[in-house]
Write a structure and sequence with these properties.
mainly alpha; two-stranded parallel sheet; Ferritin; 13 helices; 2 domains
């Protein structure tokens, strides 16, 4: 009976973690009486200025995302349209309350995307995002300097609810470092950062069915930071592999995952990790790209003999995919 109860608890906990997702935001703070705050009254002129700046930036950020989404919808780019929707959902989840006591901020009229330049629209989004985050940081600083403790908690929570995993550059060359990086140097600081990220990655995998997503997300950001700060480190290919793993397994970011897997074997063609196999499986079963899957299964057979199980699967899958 006790065993049954324990397994029931584990099953429920596992279900909760599985449903959490990489982008599950933290719960907003509540008042001393346990009530949720839906409206924040602004009374101080300096506070009103900081809040109005933030709200203006938020409205503009959303507007720029809406315009970019309209462009991708018009040109039929479904994958990037998903990115815009995820970023819009991320922004929507950031604020759990509205402001009272500031002027109403209205978005500009919708602009035509008939002959729009995609790169410019994407740059507008990135610029608006940066302005929004700067305004949010300034509001946090204002509340902390003026000892508005609860308002500071609300603003800090809004920043914590904004998930950097769900922001995009909208061009792969901006999302992922170039293929010609060379992992040639042993850099102690890079190794320390890699070890910290890898430790979080391992601790995040509690059980096969239970994942600590905040740890995986933190690991993802640290792996990316390591590659950005130390592009010549001999650990960048391994970092790229683990970035691909986290994006695939925990964040449902298949397009980005395959790009990072590719960087893993481009930066180190002899990497002893199944980067080609993992990318092949994503192209095969998730992205439904038969040609890329076939190409990569062949590369698995040629380059990843260290995993005979994957090689055998690649042979079988190639036969299936090549059937008329």
């Amino acid at each position: 009976m006790k065993r049954t109860g324990l397994w029931t608890i584990l099953f429920c906990v596992a279900g909760a973690w599985i449903l959490a997702g990489c982008d599950t935001p933290p719960s907003p703070p509540r008042t001393a009486s346990g009530e949720r705050v839906d409206v924040v009254q602004v009374v101080d002129p300096a506070e009103a200025q900081a809040v109005t700046t933030l709200e203006t930036a938020r409205v503009n950020y959303k507007y720029r995302l809406d315009v970019l989404a309209g462009y991708y919808n018009r040109v039929g780019n479904a994958n990037k349209l998903v990115w815009t929707q995820r970023e819009l959902d991320n922004l929507k989840a950031t604020h759990t309350f509205s402001w009272k006591g500031i002027p109403t901020v209205v978005a500009p009229e919708g602009e035509s995307v008939e002959n729009a330049d995609e790169r410019m629209l994407a740059e507008y989004v990135v610029s608006a995002r940066n302005a929004y985050l700067k305004a949010l940081d300034n509001l946090i600083d204002y509340y902390q300097r003026t000892d508005n403790t609860f308002q500071a908690k609300l603003a800090v929570n809004a920043k914590a609810r904004f998930d950097p995993v769900r922001t995009y550059m909208y061009f792969m060359e901006a999302e992922v470092p170039p293929a010609n990086l060379k992992p040639v140097d042993v850099i102690p600081d890079a190794n320390a950062l890699f070890d910290k990220a890898h430790g979080l990655y391992r601790r995040g995998k509690i059980l096969p069915a239970i994942t600590d997503y905040p740890k995986e997300k933190e690991a993802l950001l640290l792996f990316k930071e390591m590659v950005r700060k130390y592009p010549q480190s001999d650990k960048i290919a391994l970092a790229a592999y683990y970035i691909g793993e986290i994006l695939k397994e925990y964040c449902n970011e298949d397009l980005l995952a395959v790009q990072w897997y590719q960087r893993a074997w481009q930066w180190d063609p002899n990497i002893v990790k199944p980067a080609r196999f993992q990318a092949a499986a994503v192209y095969d079963y998730r992205l439904q790209d038969k040609d890329k899957a076939v190409e990569l299964y062949r590369q698995v057979i040629q380059h990843e003999q260290f995993n005979q199980s994957n090689v055998a699967f690649s042979h079988r899958r190639l036969k299936e995919l090549m059937q008329p």
